[in-house]
Amino acid sequence: MVSTTLAENPLREGLRTWRTPQPGTVVVFGGTGDLAQRKIIPALYDLSVRGLLPARFAVIGTSRRPESDAGYREQMLAAVEKNSRLGLNHEIWDSFAASLFYQQADPSDANGYAELCTKLAEVQEQAATGPNKMFYLAVPPAAFFEIAEGLGQAGLARQDEGWSRIVIEKPFGYDTVSSEQLNAHISRHFAEEQIYRIDHYLGKETVQNILVFRFANGIFEPLWNNRYIDYVELSVAETLGVESRGAYYEGAGALRDIVQNHLLQVLSLVAMEAPASFDAETIRDEKVKVLRSLRRIAPDEIGSRVVRAQYAEGDVGGRRVPGYRQEDGVAPDSMTETSVAIKASIDNWRWAGTPFFIRTGKRMARRVTEVAIHFKPAPHIPFAGMDNDDLPPNLLAMRIQPDEGITLRVGSKVPSPTLQVRPVNLQFLYDSSFLVDPPEAYETLLLDAMLGDHTLFPRADEVQYAWRFVDSIRESWRGSGLMDSYPAGTWGPVEADGLMLDGRLWREP
Asked: Tens digits of per-residue pLDDT, 224-257?
């Protein structure tokens, strides 16, 4: 058997060519925080292991606490040992660690940006990284405004010589108005071409493969429309509850935490028209067309098109767990949804009449993220009356996580003296097909940001159209006391079944 290396991975061919970024410095605000230690620094280290970082490269971590360069390197060594996908190689680590630096900085202190300028100049000279710089905001959203302002006032957003970029973690606001305000504020100092909004779902190989699967295979695209597809399901199910994040989740909820970004981004890839070319703006133009065509849900439709619920006490993995309202940090009369199911419609020629069912929830029966394409039944089955009346229609399931792969359900004859037809699955699995561990999402997204490739980063108008759809639901909920429930460890509220009609059923993978 021939092993397929990452560089030879055909899923990457045509998407982008692996190349090394220009020399530069990455400044991580929140450089000692959880995100930096779990994702950002380990991802940069793994890129170094793979030889995808430039030889002249540096990282400056910042936070409010005092720390030395040596102390910061020790902290990040522990983070890489724990969280690196590729494992610690001491020789590579020694070289990578030499590129790590630290600067104490309070985002609300204007003087701190002058000190950061001084540190940046020192590092650029010491590591010979040149003028290119990228600012990663791994901080709470409340700090986005002041950091963008501070960088702008300090002249760090200018691109007089090399490039300057800013990377922003979700959430991009908490509704349409706040999203527009955030974009307007950041745009005072950074042009849209300098802004990279991270949605880590778009960095997953399986999400990117939606585009390759659709547009590199001539047999599926002719069927990818309302004539042949009955309905589409997009699901993000989690077995975890809110854990210790109850206070945060009270201000978010499933609709804003998962639907507004992850699920609507995946929906736009599933539903978009074929791009004329694979460049960032063309791809993002087609995604925006989908989000603009997504029908907003009116108040008189909310009962028939949306179900919201909270998990109640139940059993998950053989363990008894409390209900959402019993979690730490959650109000006993909370109206924050932990599960939402939506019957969405896309008003264009390709998808008119084909519903898109969106479902997400915490404390569900199994952890799974999946896109399921349910095709219409064959117009005439000549095997009726031969114990084949219940033959299900064809199904295409694209599993994003876990057990990443694609399954196509077809009808096949059962080996027997009589003509019996049963559904069988044709399967493709990433791990057994390519014999490589796919890169972690943050590796892909950090590399693309350093390369200046916007393809996997939502544009400002994408974010705003997604918020407008979500806000139409939230406005309809306002003042409503209706909240369904479901036992932890199940597939969600039974009321969600009412969104399905004409024999349609939610998948329970």
From this structure: 999 999 999 999 999 999 887 888 898 889 999 9
Tokens 């201000």 locate to: 251
Residues 232 and 360 in one domain: yes
Q: Is 430 exposed, middle or buried (0-12, 13-18, 19+ CB in 10 A)?
A: buried
159 and 222 share a domain? no
Task: Domain count for the chain, please give it.
Answer: 2
Enter the DSSP assignment of 36: I
Any domain includes 21: yes
Question: 306, 308, 393: which is closest to 355 by C-alpha?
Answer: 306
Residues 346, 485 within the same domain: yes
Catalytic residue numbers read 262
Structural domain of 124: 11-170
Point out which residues pair with 407 in neighbouring strands: 397, 427
Please check the confidence at residue 110 and state whether its pLDDT lies above 90: no
Residues with Cβ within 8 Å of 392's Cβ and at least 6 positions away in sequence, in order, are 409, 423
Rounded to whole angstroms, the Cα distance separating 176 from 293 reads 17
Helices (DSSP H) in 154-294: which residue ranges? Answer: 176-187, 205-215, 246-250, 253-254, 264-271, 280-293
Secondary structure (H, E, C), 341-367: EEEECECCCCCCCCCEEEEEECCECCC
- Burial of 376-398, coded b for 16+ CB within 10 Å and e otherwise, reads eeeeeeeeeeeebeebeebbbbb
> Minimal CA–CA distance to 209: which of 57, 70, 406, 367?
406
For residue 102, give the CATH number of its domain: 3.40.50.720
Whether residue 402 is contained in a domain is answered as: no
Q: Residue 407 falls within a domain, yes or no?
A: no
Q: What is the DSSP letter of 390?
A: T
Residues 339, 484, single domain; the answer is yes
- The CATH number that applies at residue 258 is 3.30.360.10
Beta-bridged to residue 279, according to DSSP, are: none
- Sign of the CA dihedral 468, 469, 470, 473? positive
Q: What's the pLDDT score for residue 460?
A: 93
Instruction: Report in angstroms the alpha-carbon separations of 197 from 179, 182, 189, 445, 448.
Output: 12, 12, 15, 10, 12
Residues 494 and 359 in one domain: yes
What single DSSP character describes residue 251? T
User: Do residues 156 and 277 share a domain?
Assistant: no
H or E element that contains 406: strand 405-413
Asked, for residue 223, whether it belongs to a domain, the answer is: yes
Last residue of a domain, one of 170, 195, 212: 170
H/E segment holding residue 166: strand 164-169
User: For residue 369, which of 234, 224, 175, 208 has the smallest C-alpha distance?
Assistant: 234
pTM here is 0.89
**In 3D, which of 331, 337, 278 has the Cα closest to residue 309?**
337
Q: Is the pLDDT of residue 12 over 70?
A: no
> Do 40 and 136 belong together in one domain?
yes
pLDDT of residue 482: 82
